[in-house]
Automatic annotation (TrEMBL):
The chain crosses the membrane at residues 12-29, 35-56, 94-114. InterPro entries: Cyt_b561_bac/Ni-Hgenase, Di-haem_cyt_TM, Hydrogenase_cytochrome. One of its GO terms (molecular function) is heme binding. GO terms for biological process: respiratory electron transport chain. It comes from the Bacteria. GO terms for cellular component: plasma membrane. It comes from Palleronia pelagia. This is Cytochrome b. It is found in: Cell membrane. It is a multi-pass membrane protein. Its main location: membrane. Residues 6-158 form the Cytochrome b561 bacterial/Ni-hydrogenase domain.
Length: 174
């Protein structure tokens, strides 16, 4: 196995901070509390910092290292179906699509939540409905993400959760 540094501290702190904050807001903190709002603002702030880091960060943190690619996602799906094990140093094509999905979904959750607190949308239903749909979409996406990470770890032999903790991946040769 070849050990390579993949996830820098900023990416790892972002990831686990969003995990904890989103889980707290979804599962523990009262939806009507000020704490819920502040944790939501914190998540939006983290996402905005991550977007910035996607342009100026380390090699594998940069969006240029994992552009959205339908053809790449198709190839990865074909590899999965055929049993080919093509391990990726950074995000896989399907993983990249999930990352973009989650970043956008978290922004929609945050902006729609904020809209619910403004006078301009007081008593208007659609911001709350959008917020609820976006939260549900994000929760489903998180579950799919976790299952995909576990599946890909098993399929490729690369410990993906461990890499997000330690920052490096032990990659098979070649």
């Amino acid at each position: 196995m070849n050990r390579i540094q993949v996830w820098d501290p900023a990416v790892r702190v972002f990831h686990w901070s969003v995990v904890l904050a989103f889980a707290a807001n979804a599962l523990v903190i009262d939806d009507d509390s000020k704490l819920h709002q502040w944790v939501g603002y914190f998540v939006v702030g983290l996402v905005l910092l991550r977007i910035l880091w996607g342009f100026v960060g380390s090699r594998y943190a940069r969006f240029a290292s994992f552009p959205p690619s339908v053809s790449g996602a198709r190839q990865q799906a074909a590899d999965m179906l055929s049993g080919r094990r093509d391990a990726h140093a950074g995000h896989t094509p399907l993983g990249a699509l999930m990352i973009y999905n989650l970043l956008l979904a978290l922004l929609v959750v945050g902006v729609s939540g904020w809209l619910m607190t403004t006078d301009a949308f007081w008593g208007v239903e659609w911001p709350e409905e959008l917020h609820e749909i976006a939260v549900s979409w994000t929760e489903i996406s998180v579950l799919v993400h976790i299952l995909a990470v576990l599946y890909e770890s098993h399929r490729t032999g690369v410990n993906l959760p461990g890499a997000m903790v330690r920052g490096y991946k032990d990659m098979p040769p070649g």
